[in-house]
């Protein structure tokens, strides 16, 4: 009960923050990755990314469930979860960071802005400090954030068996596409 | 002697053929198998949306061991139905939540399984899906409506 009350209070707090129009949120952000090798192309999509953007402080946060990544083939998804990502033990990946060029983005004016975000990315229980470039598109009451970057599985202690080494790219391309709405 | 050689040759050819057919079978059916449909599978757990959310809110760790990657049949009231579109695919998200609750169950459907106007807010439904975990809500993937 206590936890329920706490979570209710925190949501209320969040809601009050939202009502000032500072914080934008989405529960259906889209992040997908792509691995290309001459042997095989693999892609998986996650359309349930929770993300928040505080336009006054420039804070950006993302959290997603590893099991929400959907592959074309069931077996791939199984291997991804059980062998590589160990998603039973480590069900989430997240990012917490700040927009470094906040002054160059006018969230009150429609337009496309280049953005740079620096923060901590945690995948497979390993946290790395990263900086990525992307764009922010302001259009009316919605804000879209896009970014494309690469991730090296080895950096996050994701072990890929030598048997499938040739089928999985050394560098995985990740695309972020989230649309925030003012609540 | 010649007869024996012939039998060996035929045997060898047969083995190679069987191996080849087997290889094709594995390649085509097992490795390329699309996601097994949740709709035709028996649920591992039957629960109301409220109880499912409660168990994640009180102890996420124990709820994870209980529900993660399991087929859940969840019963609840539709709060809203949304469509998410992208270049590659579109999805329908049905959000189950009681009015007085703060979080609910997010159920995502492939667009071939459900269209947006099939459900409306206030409808009482039973949905079957695979549990991915808990963020702000409990997330179910590859959902199907249970009649």
CATH architecture of the largest domain in chain B: Beta Barrel
- Cα-atom radius of gyration of chain B: 23 Å
Give the beta-strand count of chain B: 6
CATH class placement of chain A? Mainly Beta
Number of helices of chain A: 2
Radius of gyration of chain A: 18 Å
Low-confidence stretches of chain A: none
> What fold name goes in the CATH topology slot of chain A?
Lipocalin
Mean pLDDT of chain B: 87
Unreliable residue runs of chain B: none
Please provide a written account of the structure:
- The complex is a heterodimer of chains A (183) and B (147).
- Chain A is an alpha+beta fold and 183 residues long.
- Chain A has one domain: Lipid/polyisoprenoid-binding, YceI-like (Lipocalin).
- Chain A contains two helices and nine strands, in the order H-E-E-E-E-H-E-E-E-E-E.
- In chain A, a hairpin with a 2-residue loop joins strand 7 and strand 8.
- The relative contact order of chain A is 0.19.
- Chain B has 147 residues and is α/β, with parallel strands linked by helices.
- Chain B folds into two domains: 1-33; 38-145, Beta Barrel (OB fold (Dihydrolipoamide Acetyltransferase, E2P)), CATH 2.40.50.
- Chain B has helices at 2-31, 49-58, 60-67, and strands spanning 45-48, 71-85, 90-96, 105-110, 124-134, 138-145.
- Chain B has a five-stranded mixed β-barrel with strand order 2-3-4-6-5.
- The mean pLDDT of chain B is 87.
- The chains are: A alpha+beta (183), B alpha/beta (147).
- At the A-B interface, helix 1, strand 1, strand 2, strand 3 and strand 4 of A face helix 2, strand 5 and strand 6 of B.
Question: Could you outline the blueprint of secondary structure elements for this entry?
Answer:
The complex is a heterodimer of chains A (183) and B (147).
Chain A (H helix, E strand, L loop, with lengths): L1 H18 L3 E14 L4 E14 L4 E7 L4 E2 L2 H12 L6 E8 L11 E13 L2 E14 L2 E10 L20 E10 L2
Antiparallel strand pairs in A: 1-2, 1-9, 2-3, 2-4, 3-5, 5-6, 6-7, 7-8, 8-9
Chain B lengths: L1 H30 L13 E4 H10 L1 H8 L3 E15 L4 E7 L8 E6 L13 E11 L3 E8 L2
Parallel strand pairs in B: 1-2, 4-6
Antiparallel strand pairs in B: 2-3, 2-5, 3-4, 5-6
Helix pairs in contact in B: 2-3
